[in-house]
Every structure is written in C-alpha cells, then in structure tokens.
Amino acid sequence: MKVQQIYTGCLAHAAYYLESRGEAAIFDPLREVKPYIDRAEHDGAKIKYVFETHFHADFVSGHLNLKEKTGATIVFGPTAKPGYDALIAEDGQIFTVGDYKVKAIHTPGHTMESTTYLLIDENGKEHGIITGDTLFIGDVGRPDLAQHVVSELTEEKLAGHLFDSLRNKIMPLDDKLIVYPNHGAGSACGKKMSSETTDTLGHQKKTNYALRADMTKEEFIKELLEGLTAPPGYFPQNVLMNIKGYESIDTIMERGTNPLSPEAFEAAANETSALVLDTRDAETFSKGFIPNSVNIGLEGSFAQWVGEMIPDVKQEILLVCEPGKEEEAIIRLSRVGYDKTLGYLENGFESWKKAGKEIDRIQRMNADEFALAYNDSRPLVIDVRKKSEFDSEHVIGAVNIPLNVINQHLAEFPKDNEFVLHCAGGYRSMIAASILKQRGWENFVDVAGGFADIKTKNVEVSRFIEPKTML
C-alpha cells in the first residue's frame, strides 16, 4: 500500500500521504502545503481528500490551504463542527482513494471528534490505522486539552471516553496493522511517547501501558492523568484557529517577507507593539543583539518554544535572522499560529552593527570556568531545565525554575546578587537570559554547553529525587 509518513522533527509531527491510481489523500497536513501538492503532481495525482483526525492544539493544520489550492474535500469525524465547509463523516463511513479505501472510526477521548482512519488496500486487506492523537507509540493522547475550549469536557470524562475507544474500537483490530500516529517523542500531546514513529498494533498491545488487557477504567484514568503537566498556553488558541479558520499562508508570507533597513526596523519596533524575535543560535546572539530582543534559535525546537514563551498568537513580530533564513522562520511561526510577522531586518544583524545602532550582550562562561567559580565561591545556580530533568540529576545547591514558567517566577531571580544560569546544552538558558535582559536583569552569567558539559567537570552533582526547588 502506498502510504508515506512525512515527519517534521521540530514539531514531532507526522502527516501522511496516500496515493492510488491518480487519486491522493493527505492526513493532518502542516500549514505550508506546497510539499504535499508537489508530491501529488510528481505522482500525477489529484488530491481528493484532506482527512483531519481532530482539531489540533499543537499546530495549525493546512487543511484550508489545501482545499483552497486543490479543491480537495476536508473530512472530519463525527461531532466536529468546523466554521467552514467540510464533510462530517459518520462512524464507519468508507471513502475511496483510487483502489484504496479509508474507513472512519470514531474514537473520542483526546477530543470528542477524534477519529482514527483504517487504511484498506486494493485487495481489501486492512493495512494500518492513522490514529491522530488517540494512540501514539508507547502512549495515548492527553485528555485535558478540550476542556480549555469547552469547559464541561473535564479530563476525567474524556479519559473515560478514551478508555472505551481504545478497548472497543482499536484493540479488537488485527495485531498486524501498522499504527501511524500524529506525533512522536518531544510532542507536548503525550507524556511517554517513543522515539519510534510507527509500530504494529500487536506490539503496542504488549508494550503500551495504556493498552494493558487487565486494566480497569479507573486504573486507566488514574495512570493517564498522573504526571500531566500544564499544556502550553498557545494550544487553545491553535484549536480555535483550526475550528474557525485562518488566513492563507500566502497572505502571511507576503506580509512577513518584508525586508526592513535598520532605520525602518527601529522605527517599526518603536511605533508598534511588535516583539523583536532573534532566531540566531545562542552563541552568536550572546555576542551582540538588538536591545530588548528575545532569542529563540531556529536550530532548536523553535515553534514549540515560541508557543511556550509568547502568550498570544496575535503578537506582532519583527524578525532578526541569519540572511536567507527569513522565510523558514515565518513558515515555522505560522505552523503554530503566529501569523503577524511584520518584516525582518534586511541583511541580518550585521546591517544593524554597520548602522552604528545600540547593541547589547550576554556574558557566558564555559564549563571549566563554571567549575572554578562553583568550587571557589558557590554562586547561586539557577537551572531552567524541566523538573523531571532536574530531579534526575543536578548541580548540588542549584535552584530549579523551568523555562516554560519563567514569566510567572521572575520575582525569584535576584536583582542584587549575581547568579549563574544554565540548561541542558545552552539553548533554553539563552532564551531565559534574553528574557531576563529584556526585563532589566544584568547580574548573571550563562553557561555555554549547559549541564551536559558541567557534569563532566569537577562539580558535585546530585542524583537524588528530592530536588531543591522554588516552585
């Protein structure tokens, strides 16, 4: 069966492409749809359907852009109520794509409209299931997102629905079926996802904690809800965009690919409420940047950290990028609903320097310098990794303030005493450092290389599960 997984690592997202006899279908596409269209044209196929497993929270789907550009029919599962024209499938409804069939199986739980699509080949043999966020490899979808949009859908109610969907709709299917999930490890849509992006259903029945045959519904609900962290703030906003609709990607690109001279860039920053977002790598940023800009590097989990650190998807943004990276940055912002890029600094930061504009810097030290300072004077060390990372191992005496909650805990960063900032490798701590600089902190040093380098030096590291924390 000709089904292709199209995986985007920075979002831990999987879309799927199905083609048979000149007809194609796309499942859960990203916002920029040209790669899907190009693939279909290469195969001499017309995109007939865009299947959506649910209203996504962690990204803005490209379903509307595909419909606009190809005339494809958008398909949602039962109970979905989109604010635009779409086909709402019945439970068990079958769609044809060339010689293949796609069967909609309503599997509520992650959300109420969540639907799994069973793929059937040209010989009538069941091949695989595209499960969306109902079933991952090693995990299942979190049931606490829909309540941020519809308050009466409590996480307990949704978890109960998910238990029933898995037991009554998914687990009775053939063990040989290939499971094609919407996400892999690194996504905030689950908590125990594997780095593998496909598996057989039979193997998942043996290894996935949520598919234990002897599990009661009460046990399932308890285990599923245990250890869930708060979802990123942009999730509900993305859900509403996917339900109500959004601007065309072409409009977003036209508005954002607006080169600005240093003078025009400075004027735009002063005359609007735009955030200056610098997407260069942490080391380059630290050596010189536009005052009050925030650093989130393109080389890391850019879209996810933008979503974590910028509360409002309608925030206007001015970009500073390495020359040639501007379009990539605009596309990756749009994937998570940040559509208000107003332009970018033409020729990058070097043009700002050559214009003689004001520059700020962030002091960094390497792990050897950290070890000397730590063993000599025991400075305050603030670790911005996740609590689970900190609990696993950390510098003795360090304080844990995870990056994703830094804005709620700024008062815990001293302004009168010096401190040292670090994360795992230097990416997240530079985000934190840029935010602190923007808010007026000057008395800190960031560790290049982060904890990965620190623990190789002569520094006391605790591996107890009793962290010192300020949260």
Automatic annotation (TrEMBL):
One of its GO terms (molecular function) is metal ion binding. Residues 270-361, 375-463 form the Rhodanese domain. InterPro entries: Metallo-B-lactamas, Mito_Persulfide_Diox, POD-like_MBL-fold, Rhodanese-like_dom, Rhodanese-like_dom_sf, RibonucZ/Hydroxyglut_hydro. GO terms for biological process: glutathione metabolic process; hydrogen sulfide metabolic process. It comes from the Bacteria. Keywords: Hydrolase, Metal-binding. PANTHER family: PERSULFIDE DIOXYGENASE ETHE1, PERSULFIDE DIOXYGENASE ETHE1, MITOCHONDRIAL. This is MBL fold metallo-hydrolase.
